[in-house]
Design a protein that fits this description.
Shape: elongated
Oligomer: single chain
Number of domains: 1
Keywords: Membrane, Transmembrane, Transmembrane helix
Radius of gyration: 18 Å
């Protein structure tokens, strides 16, 4: 989220080489990669605690719920930045 806020703002102001679309793609791909890493760490930790078998899946539900919440927040940030970019481009013409 912080990456999207900082670099999205810089991409709108064209102070970096990345376009706004590329910044958004980097944000969504990195969020997906972090989810995969967190899922693997969680499953390994749960297996280590219960001798190779996962008995309770509630931590996975919590992780997925948190991931959905973060994805919604990132989408809102991207939408707000897109609207700011569109307004900025309209005013510069």
């Amino acid at each position: 989220m912080i990456f999207q806020i900082i670099f999205g703002r810089k991409a709108i102001g064209e102070s970096i080489k990345l376009t706004f679309f590329k910044v958004c793609l980097i944000t969504f791909f990195s969020q997906f990669i972090f989810f995969i890493i967190a899922f693997n760490i969680l499953s390994n930790k749960l297996r280590a605690e219960s001798n190779g078998q996962i008995r309770c899946g509630m931590p996975f539900v919590g992780l997925i719920g948190l991931e959905i919440l973060i994805a919604i927040i990132i989408l809102v940030i991207v939408l707000v930045q897109y609207l700011i970019k569109r307004s900025y481009n309209r005013n510069s013409k």
